[in-house]
Amino acid sequence: MFKDSKLILLLALPSILSFATVTLTGTISLIMVGQLGALVIAVVGVSNIIMYNGWALFSGTGLTVNYLVAQNYGAGELKKAVERTYIALYFCIIVAVLLVIAGFYAPGAVLRLMGGNTELVNAGEAYLGIRFFAMAFSVASFVLQGFFRGIGDTRTPLVLAIVGNAAMVFFTYSLTYGHLGFPKLGLPGAGWAFFIGEALIFAGSLYVFLVRLHARFGTRSRVVISRAEARLILTESGKLGVQEFATSAAMFIFTMFVTRLGTTALASNEVALNVMSFGFMPAFAFSATATILVGQAVGRGDPLQARKYGTETAILGSIFLLILGTIEFFLADGIARIYTSDPQVQELAARLIRVSAFLQLFDGLYNFYAGGLRGIGDTTFMVKASFLINWLIFVPLAYVLTFMLDMGSMGTWIALYTFLAIYGLAMLIRFYRTDWLQVQMKKA
């Protein structure tokens, strides 16, 4: 157990730091551009929602590469791992073209579709367009980092995240306000900071893949692409992307419900979600670790060890979240005061922080066991469960509790609690009801 725990932590901790770097950069960037006024904060908030949903839809390609490469690496099929990564990168070229077109022609229409008034659209059109351009790099980077994680390298994504996000902070400061001899671009400058940071991460990822890993994996060798493999990548990417999008879209509806409750409720909700995001980082990190270890064990032809890895990763991740949740529960009032000086927002935010403190455990269960199920390629179940639980339980329940039963903010969070509890238990039950002796590598 100790040996496995050490292996799990060695893979998970760099991922936690990597995700923490991204979260911290977003917070610092928002603080810096926030000095431009409330309208700019609103533009950034709406743009982040759009990017989150777009990212969810296209993230399936990187998730697919991650679990398939893990299986191939475990089986010693290094050439197959490289072939599948190239297929995903070719798909990313198509996605990048679509994102560039969207960046040129769609920002205004998208902002209006989100309910933005003329002032918000005029202020945010250029910024959102640049964010679309930046996403073209981030989608491809996620595929390459899926390869790195699949072979058990979680340190390279961490180093690249630190470099890229440091660049984002530097250029947000310099380009937004014209410091250090750079032009003063205002909000579009913050958009270009995202673009530069994502471009650096992509360039670094490509360098590692093509140069540093070539001797070991033959990453610059000619790769013959088979139609069967291409079909597999597209199918799996579609399923995992739709699974993520079903959740992100449901969370968007959740936020719309809270928005209708008024400013105090919305502000309190944002504070609670921001605090809860500290639990998302270890949840995602241990989920990625489960995918790596389970996938590699399946590739080695040792499904029972794969099951053991999944269980131990879930246990360690749950301990991590339990400690974090306990701290948040007892320090909720003090944490709320850090975010706001408004007494009403402080009171409601503290209540929601206490509610969300142990909600993270259920979110963790979902992520840990979903990571394990990805490792064996059980993607069909995952996409079905995501649709059913998000849209037949979560969204309707949130509406009923919030508006029909007039429970306000607490109603939305009870719905969120119920949703994550059911989602987490569904993944857990599926994981342990799987006939592991019949688990095999995913074939084209």
Automatic annotation (TrEMBL):
<dbReference type="GO" id="GO:0015297">
    <property type="term" value="F:antiporter activity"/>
</dbReference>
<dbReference type="InterPro" id="IPR002528">
    <property type="entry name" value="MATE_fam"/>
</dbReference>
<dbReference type="Pfam" id="PF01554">
    <property type="entry name" value="MatE"/>
</dbReference>
<keyword id="KW-1003">Cell membrane</keyword>
<feature type="transmembrane region" description="Helical">
    <location>
        <begin position="87"/>
        <end position="106"/>
    </location>
</feature>
<feature type="transmembrane region" description="Helical">
    <location>
        <begin position="192"/>
        <end position="213"/>
    </location>
</feature>
<feature type="transmembrane region" description="Helical">
    <location>
        <begin position="159"/>
        <end position="180"/>
    </location>
</feature>
<feature type="transmembrane region" description="Helical">
    <location>
        <begin position="314"/>
        <end position="332"/>
    </location>
</feature>
<feature type="transmembrane region" description="Helical">
    <location>
        <begin position="240"/>
        <end position="259"/>
    </location>
</feature>
<comment type="similarity">
    <text>Belongs to the multi antimicrobial extrusion (MATE) (TC 2.A.66.1) family.</text>
</comment>
<keyword id="KW-0406">Ion transport</keyword>
<keyword id="KW-0050">Antiport</keyword>
<feature type="transmembrane region" description="Helical">
    <location>
        <begin position="381"/>
        <end position="401"/>
    </location>
</feature>
<feature type="transmembrane region" description="Helical">
    <location>
        <begin position="271"/>
        <end position="294"/>
    </location>
</feature>
<feature type="transmembrane region" description="Helical">
    <location>
        <begin position="413"/>
        <end position="432"/>
    </location>
</feature>
<dbReference type="GO" id="GO:0006811">
    <property type="term" value="P:monoatomic ion transport"/>
</dbReference>
<dbReference type="InterPro" id="IPR050222">
    <property type="entry name" value="MATE_MdtK"/>
</dbReference>
<comment type="function">
    <text>Multidrug efflux pump.</text>
</comment>
<dbReference type="GO" id="GO:0042910">
    <property type="term" value="F:xenobiotic transmembrane transporter activity"/>
</dbReference>
<dbReference type="GO" id="GO:0005886">
    <property type="term" value="C:plasma membrane"/>
</dbReference>
<feature type="transmembrane region" description="Helical">
    <location>
        <begin position="126"/>
        <end position="147"/>
    </location>
</feature>
<keyword id="KW-0472">Membrane</keyword>
<keyword id="KW-1133">Transmembrane helix</keyword>
<keyword id="KW-0813">Transport</keyword>
<feature type="transmembrane region" description="Helical">
    <location>
        <begin position="352"/>
        <end position="369"/>
    </location>
</feature>
<keyword id="KW-0812">Transmembrane</keyword>
<dbReference type="InterPro" id="IPR048279">
    <property type="entry name" value="MdtK-like"/>
</dbReference>
<protein>
    <recommendedName>
        <fullName>Probable multidrug resistance protein NorM</fullName>
    </recommendedName>
</protein>
<feature type="transmembrane region" description="Helical">
    <location>
        <begin position="35"/>
        <end position="58"/>
    </location>
</feature>
